[in-house]
Specification:
The complex is a heterodimer of chains A (108) and B (116).
Chain A lengths: L3 E4 L2 E4 L5 E7 L7 E6 L6 E5 L3 E2 L7 E6 L2 E6 L9 E6 L7 E2 L3 E5 L1
Parallel strand pairs in A: 2-11
Antiparallel strand pairs in A: 1-3, 3-8, 4-5, 4-9, 5-6, 7-8, 9-10, 9-11
Chain B lengths: L2 E5 L2 E3 L5 E8 L8 E6 L5 E7 L6 E3 L7 E6 L4 E6 L8 E7 L6 E2 L3 E5 L2
Parallel strand pairs in B: 2-11
Antiparallel strand pairs in B: 1-3, 3-8, 4-5, 4-9, 5-6, 7-8, 9-10, 9-11
């Protein structure tokens, strides 16, 4: 099983600033990595697939990068609606499909 | 627009069965692999099971193998999760999600509480 580790667990950033979230895989997942956003009380929604491809309707301020075992989600200028929990997910080797434990993005 | 609507959750005693359903609309259900993903209270996301677009292949996370069965009825655009021998650690919000390897579409979730 591939273990996904996200850091930090909690990130406090001011609106308008940049946020950088990290995700590390226990072995290479190539670029088969997705990111999700989950707002309180809501279902997750897909932000990015294949490391850097934004899903339909996702603003350009969200970008993804990386390959192999190290990945980054960057939010260039935080809006109020971006404060949420973010999960990475690998789909290179499955079953099982595995998620990171999440990064909570808080307002500073 | 795409809709996935789960139902069937509730409070169930340990060891008892429960069946979840997920009604799909707004996309070609029969062309999509479908998954169940769960989230224990205050915890992260855990993938549970997947079924291929035609139902010919299924896979499960180890903790539910032999207890849970994923199935689908493409004529009804509906996904199911049959859960047997439920345990306290199965308590979670269960989401159905559509996609082959990642999850393009999500339902709103249904809460399953396993408690005596």
């Amino acid at each position: 099983e591939i273990v996904m580790t996200q850091s930090p667990a909690t990130l406090s950033v001011s609106p308008g600033e940049r946020a950088t979230l990290s995700c590390r895989a226990s072995q290479s997942v190539s670029t088969n990595l997705a990111w999700y956003q989950q707002r309180p009380g809501q279902a997750p929604r897909l932000l990015i697939s294949a490391t850097s491809t934004r899903a339909t309707g996702i603003p350009a301020r969200f970008s993804g990068s990386g390959s192999g075992t190290e990945f980054t989600l960057t939010i260039s200028s935080l809006q109020s609606e971006d404060f949420a929990v973010y999960y990475c997910q690998q789909y290179n080797v499955w079953p099982p499909i595995t998620f990171g434990q999440g990064t909570r993005l808080d307002i500073k | 627009q795409v809709q996935l609507v789960e139902s069937g959750g509730g409070v169930v005693q340990p060891g008892r069965p429960l069946r979840l359903s997920c009604a799909a609309s707004g996309f070609t259900f029969s062309s999509y692999g479908m998954h169940w993903v769960r989230q224990a209270p205050g915890k992260g996301l855990e993938w549970v099971a997947v079924i291929s677009y035609d139902g010919s292949n299924t896979y499960y996370t180890d903790s539910v193998k032999g207890r849970f069965t994923i199935s689908r009825d493409n004529s009804k655009n509906t996904l199911y999760l049959h859960m047997n021998s439920l345990r306290a650690e199965d308590t979670a919000v269960y989401y159905c999600a559509g996609g082959v390897w990642y999850f393009d579409y999500w339902g709103q979730g249904t809460l399953v509480t396993v408690s005596s």
